[in-house]
Amino acid sequence: MSGRLELERIVYCSQARRPEVALQSLAEILAVSDRNNRRDNLTGVLLISRGRFFQVLEGAAQDLDRTMSRIRLDPRHHDVEIVSRGPARGRLFGQWGMVAARVTPMRQAQIDAVIDRCHEDPGAAVEAARNLLDHQIAA
Ligand SMILES: Cc1cc2nc3c(=O)[nH]c(=O)nc-3n(C[C@H](O)[C@H](O)[C@H](O)COP(=O)(O)O)c2cc1C
């Protein structure tokens, strides 16, 4: 990848339109995201719990803008709120196109903890999401 790529990271949270629909949608969202994000060189993570989404996206500014415009218009969620956006030194989620933490009873509390921190401390939420994945991959 070009060293001149100006990497940015966006963190947002949103409300699923209907919590019970959200889980079903997740597989669909991930399939499309994986395809598009690979094409656009975007990496990140998507978490869902209790009807709320939390997503981190990293890549070039124009690719992030284009993707965020589509995401904002998606009727599967609303109240899309960007809690953090800025330059990033490197990719935190570089190994993955777009991953979702599996929602298992064991993971639930950890995922909730990440999403709960979305507004008050987005940086900590990103870090916690990253740790969550490390453990998931290791498990
Ligand atoms: C919570 C949430 C996260 C999403 N994340 C992504 C994403 O990372 N990349 C992406 O391309 N689409 C994402 N989407 C889907 C977009 O809203 C949109 O449906 C999709 O980009 C359309 O792709 P297409 O034009 O190739 O059909 C997400 C949707 C939701 C509801």
- CATH C-level label: Alpha Beta
Number of strands: 5
Number of domain units: 1
Secondary structure category: alpha+beta
Order of helices and strands: EHEEHEEHH
Q: State the end-to-end distance.
A: 30 Å
Uncertain residue segments: none
CATH architecture tag? 2-Layer Sandwich
In spatial order, strands of the major sheet run 4-1-3-2-5
Shape: globular
Total of helices: 4
Ions and ligands? flavin mononucleotide
What is the helical fraction, as a range of percent?
40-55%
Strand portion, in percent? 25-35%
Based on CA atoms alone, the radius of gyration comes out at: 14 Å
Overview of the molecule:
- The chain has 139 residues and is an alpha+beta fold.
- It has one domain (7-138): Alpha-Beta Plaits.
- The protein has four helices and five strands; from the N terminus they run βαββαββαα.
- It has helices at 19-40, 61-72, 105-116, 122-138, and strands at 7-16, 43-49, 52-60, 77-87, 99-100.
- Helix 3 (105-116) packs antiparallel against helix 4 (122-138).
- Flavin mononucleotide binds at residues 29, 32-33, 36-37, 46, 53, 55, 57, 67, 70-71, 74, 76-77, 98.
- Flavin mononucleotide (FMN) is lined by residues 29, 32-33, 36-37, 46, 53, 55, 57, 67, 70-71, 74, 76-77, 98.
Annotation keywords:
globular; Alpha-Beta Plaits; single chain; 139 residues; 45% helix; alpha+beta
Care to give the gist of this entry?
By secondary structure, the chain is an alpha+beta fold. The chain has one domain: Alpha-Beta Plaits (2-Layer Sandwich). Helices cover 45% and strands 28% of the residues.
